[in-house]
């Protein structure tokens, strides 16, 4: 048995029993990366030396008999929009191609404090804007289940790395589905926590009121493990929630007795692939058989979510990305005066999608259009929140698809931004409402995984994890390994 | 036609908190370039702001001192524009829900009391500074100093209630006094910790509708505010008088040429695309906390002026001069507390002390003669130990040497001669030496006695008690 095929909690156990060393674990993953990274292309930056050094420190701690933190010695990856002091953080953009932050994101600092081993920084759609990693300025990552398909985005590099067993866990960021979609496409588990549950300090902002860092893992227990390591209040993030962090692994019980599950009918939209719908319906039946009480609920404003999302996210992005101007850091274009320099810098530095969203957001906030676009979108957001509040008066969690389809082919949608945006129709309402949601595999169609979405109340991560765990344990999807081009 | 001038002022004042508004960097003025900086105020990717609680407290205190209503729910917004001294290319400010609204302050110009409305007070971050090699026009490049980036500012906006350049100056002086009294800002215009923009328009007297306004920038001193507004009022009057129209525009005051010049028209005005700052949570203030701040407000200039008139019988004018700055008023209270008689204290403060401070350019806080020391000097005059004239010399010596009045009087033997026996000999000597003046006096020329007193003073190096000298001279002639 090769170490990289195991789950994080299994290796945690072996490490504590001294059946393996942290160095052996790290070496196993580095070897796996060497073997399959050429095919998958998940990494923008690899940090093998730092990973081995960290693993050796963990082994020294073990030798000294010191207590280990839960993630100690367990290798993972970070999406390349999460700042790590001294390591290049590109956001998948030319404009930050050589940017090395002089500070750690709070999650990076917490993981370092836990002695987690970081294997590298992973590919993403530029500034997390996209659903496939095709908007990365550098390259497109591949889906380990079908190398001609996308891994989903924007955290596609982390999704592909975990799915291809190049890492035990990965962190992504989810603004409109960017953790959950790659989890669904890559057949792994992805959690978008409650807004404010995980610190955003050091996560390069896209849509600040929507962004949330979340884990991508190979099973639900690992998801609970990583959540426990990264969640919690951070004085550096004013929007972070001051609430104690529970032991998420305690929520993992394999039955759903007494749990009320809602099925929002508006999520089963026209355009939903019949195979996907069948898998979701099958999953609902299974949840019922595990003891849950399932009923249909209505969330009437769902159809306006996508439009509201693309106004709010792009408005915030137009302001968040204004700082990349060539003055203090990052790429600088040549120009004879300051305005010419700005224009060259931003034209050369940003890709097409980033430019499109900056323009959309700038327009939505412009004088004369603000009320009709941005303000109206905020009102829609309130209505969507109310939809969730009302639904959660009746049920504990909601179940829905993640995406209308399974992973699409590379190049299939790049020419049609609207078709690409429609990928997010089932995920964006969750970010608008600020509630948590998890994605986990619930079947396969044509050899590609189908993702199931479970949505919870604010700070209701435990209920999500419980439902997801019970479902997972009743199936074997989490035991399947992506072929990564092998037949 | 007779025009009425309508002016509204926007004042920016830097708060004297120790750290910046959204990070822990120092706000110290004059530090080496780009040393008071961190990832947050440099706006590096991924960083987030955290509001400095002291800034909020100072903003509430200012709002209360300006008779404002504190909004129970307030928020920050982003003001988007590109400029190299603004690292995020947006300024975190407050737009539609500022911390304080609907206040006023009272001024008096030429004996007329006027109440000027305060529209709003809001918090925001300052930008950095561009440094050019040589002059802007001739420089090939600009350097950026980010030390000032993120220094907390309050913007205080008045209603268009001001009717003359003189009133504008009085408003600024009163505002500055209040901000200094409540200890939220140094208000040093020369260091940029107090800045003023003005909106000015004219309308036919009696008309209630406002005319088209111009916004004046680059008013870098109180004098510049007054001169700039006077110029602009004249310019607008001339344009209107010639049948022209005022264009809505931003104009810059050129202090050296004494004119205002157009910077940009309304069409070229920025669209700031304000929207709520998503990285900061709305500000919800506890009414009890507001009341606690209200209770802790110090005595404000108007109240203090009234007290000085009532308690010490000072004239309204004198009390106004003394209370125009908190430091001056504190110095006065210090003199009285140390036992000086109030009128004498006021005269010394507005006379010798003010004169010396003006000459040395020092603020009263740095006055080398402490209130305690000056009170001691005043009491020496009161007790007749030294004459008023000698006291000025002693003050001079105190200012330069830092010695006490008593020590100087002792060392230099300046104690007033009030002993008649000791004095008679000198008086007789002077009478004998000046027969002509004596004859004049006897002939009824009252003025001659002044000369003789002067001679005695000269003999005694000013130490003689003038009243005693007068009496003795008359007795002996």
Describe this structure in words.
The complex is a heterodimer of chains A (487) and B (477). Chain A is an alpha/beta fold and 487 residues long. Chain A has two domains: 352 residues, Amidase signature (AS) enzymes (Alpha-Beta Complex), CATH 3.90.1300.10; 76 residues, no CATH class. Chain A has 15 helices and eleven strands. An eleven-stranded mixed beta sheet of chain A has the order 1-3-2-4-6-5-10-11-9-7-8, sandwiched between helices. The longest helix of chain A is centred in the C-terminal third of the chain and has 24 residues. Chain A is globular. Chain A starts with 7 loop residues before the first helix and ends in a 14-residue tail after the last helix. Chain B has 477 residues and is of the alpha+beta class. Chain B has three domains: 217 residues, no CATH class; 114 residues, no CATH class; 57 residues, Arc Repressor Mutant, subunit A (Orthogonal Bundle). Chain B contains 15 helices and 16 strands. In chain B, the strands form four sheets. A nine-stranded mixed beta sheet of chain B has the order 2-6-7-10-1-11-12-13-14. In chain B, strands 5-4-15 form a three-stranded antiparallel beta sheet, with no helix packed on it. Chain B has a two-stranded antiparallel sheet with strand order 3-16. The longest helix of chain B has 20 residues. The interface between A and B is large, with 44 and 28 residues.
């Amino acid at each position: 048995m090769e170490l990289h095929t195991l789950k994080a909690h299994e290796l945690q156990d072996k490490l504590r029993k001294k059946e393996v060393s942290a160095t052996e674990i790290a070496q196993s993953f580095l070897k796996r990366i060497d073997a399959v990274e050429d095919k998958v292309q998940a990494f923008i930056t690899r940090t093998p030396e730092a990973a081995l050094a960290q693993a050796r420190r963990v082994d020294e701690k073990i030798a000294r008999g010191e207590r280990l933190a839960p993630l100690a010695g367990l290798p993972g990856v970070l999406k390349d929009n999460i700042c790590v002091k001294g390591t290049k953080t590109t956001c998948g953009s030319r404009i930050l191609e050589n940017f090395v932050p002089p500070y750690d994101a709070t999650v990076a600092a917490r993981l370092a404090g836990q002695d987690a081993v970081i294997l590298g920084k992973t590919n993403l759609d530029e500034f997390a804007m996209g659903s496939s990693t095709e908007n990365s300025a550098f390259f497109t990552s591949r889906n380990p289940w079908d190398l001609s398909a996308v891994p989903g985005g924007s955290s596609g590099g982390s999704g592909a790395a975990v799915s291809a067993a190049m890492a035990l866990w990965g962190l992504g960021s989810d603004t409109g589905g960017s953790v959950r979609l790659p989890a669904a496409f890559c057949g792994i588990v992805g959690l978008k926590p409650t807004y404010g549950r995980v610190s955003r300090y050091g996560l390069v902002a896209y849509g600040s009121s929507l962004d949330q860092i979340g884990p991508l893992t190979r099973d639900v227990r690992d998801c609970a493990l990583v959540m426990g390591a990264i969640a919690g209040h951070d004085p550096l993030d004013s929007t972070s929630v001051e609430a104690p962090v529970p032991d998420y692994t305690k929520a993992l019980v394999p039955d759903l007795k007494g749990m009320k599950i809602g099925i929002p009918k508006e999520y089963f939209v026209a355009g939903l692939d019949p195979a996907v719908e069948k898998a979701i319906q099958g999953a609902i039946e299974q949840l019922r058989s595990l003891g849950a009480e399932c009923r249909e609920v209505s969330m009437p404003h769902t159809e306006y979510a996508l439009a509201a999302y693309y106004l709010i996210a792009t408005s915030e992005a137009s302001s968040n990305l204004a700082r990349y101007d060539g003055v203090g850091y990052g790429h600088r274009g040549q120009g004879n005066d300051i305005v010419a320099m700005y224009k060259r810098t931003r034209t050369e530095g940003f890709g097409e999608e980033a430019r499109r969203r900056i323009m959309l957001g700038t327009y939505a906030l412009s004088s004369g259009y603000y009320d009709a676009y941005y303000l109206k979108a905020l009102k829609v957001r309130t209505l969507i929140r109310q939809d969730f509040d009302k639904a959660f008066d009746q049920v504990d969690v909601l179940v829905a698809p993640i995406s209308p389809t399974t992973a699409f082919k590379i190049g299939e949608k790049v020419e049609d931004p609207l078709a690409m945006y429609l990928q997010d129709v089932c995920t964006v309402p969750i970010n608008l409402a600020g509630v948590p949601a998890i994605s986990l595999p619930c079947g396969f169609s044509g050899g590609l995984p189908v993702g199931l979405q479970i949505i919870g109340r604010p700070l209701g991560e435990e209920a999500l994890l419980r439902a997801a765990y019970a479902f997972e344990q009743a199936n074997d999807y989490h035991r399947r390994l992506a072929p990564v081009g092998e037949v | 036609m007779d025009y009425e001038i309508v002016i509204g002022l926007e004042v920016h004042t830097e708060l004297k908190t120790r750290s910046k508004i959204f990070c822990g960097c120092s706000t110290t003025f004059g530090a080496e370039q780009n040393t008071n900086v961190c990832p947050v105020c440099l706006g590096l990717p991924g960083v987030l702001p955290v509001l400095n609680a002291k800034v909020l407290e100072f903003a509430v205190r200012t709002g209360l001192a300006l008779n404002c209503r504190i909004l129970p729910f307030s928020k920050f917004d982003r003001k988007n524009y590109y400029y190299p001294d603004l690292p995020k290319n947006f300024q975190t400010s407050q737009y539609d829900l500022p911390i304080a609204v609907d206040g006023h302050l009272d001024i008096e110009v030429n004996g007329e009391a006027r109440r000027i409305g305060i529209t709003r007070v809001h918090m925001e971050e300052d930008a950095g500074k561009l440094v050019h090699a040589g002059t802007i026009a001739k420089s090939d490049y600009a350097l950026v100093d980010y030390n000032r980036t993120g220094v907390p500012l309050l913007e205080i906006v008045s209603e268009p209630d001001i009717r003359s350049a003189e009133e504008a100056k009085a408003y600024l002086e009163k505002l500055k006094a209040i901000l200094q009294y409540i200890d939220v800002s140094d208000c040093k215009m020369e260091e940029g910790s107090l800045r003023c923009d003005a909106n000015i328009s004219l309308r036919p007297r009696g008309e209630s509708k406002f005319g088209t306004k111009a916004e004046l920038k680059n008013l870098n001193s109180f004098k510049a505010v007054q001169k700039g507004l006077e110029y602009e009022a004249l310019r607008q009057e001339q344009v209107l008088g010639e049948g022209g129209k005022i264009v809505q525009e931003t104009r810059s005051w050129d202090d050296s040429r004494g004119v205002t010049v157009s910077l940009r028209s309304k069409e070229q005005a920025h669209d700031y695309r304000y929207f709520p700052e998503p990285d900061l949570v709305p500000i919800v203030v506890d009414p009890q906390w507001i009341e606690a701040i209200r209770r802790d407000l110090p005595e404000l200039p108007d109240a203090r002026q009234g007290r000085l008139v009532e308690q010490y019988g000072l004239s309204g004018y004198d009390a106004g001069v003394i209370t125009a700055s908190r430091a001056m008023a504190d110095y006065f209270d210090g003199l009285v507390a140390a036992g000086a008689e109030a009128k004498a204290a006021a005269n010394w403060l507005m006379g010798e002390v003010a004169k010396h401070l003006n000459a040395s350019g020092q603020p009263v806080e740095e006055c080398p003669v402490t209130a305690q020391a000056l009170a001691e000097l005043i009491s020496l005059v009161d007790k007749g130990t030294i004459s008023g004239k000698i006291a000025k010399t002693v003050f001079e010596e105190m200012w330069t040497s830092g010695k006490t009045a008593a020590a100087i009087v002792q060392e230099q033997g300046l104690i007033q001669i009030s002993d008649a026996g000791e004095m008679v000999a000198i008086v007789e000597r002077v009478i004998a030496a000046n027969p002509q003046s004596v004859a004049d006096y006897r002939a009824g020329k009252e003025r001659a006695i002044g000369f003789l007193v002067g001679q005695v003073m000269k003999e005694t190096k000013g130490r003689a008690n003038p009243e005693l000298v007068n009496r003795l001279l008359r007795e002996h002639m």
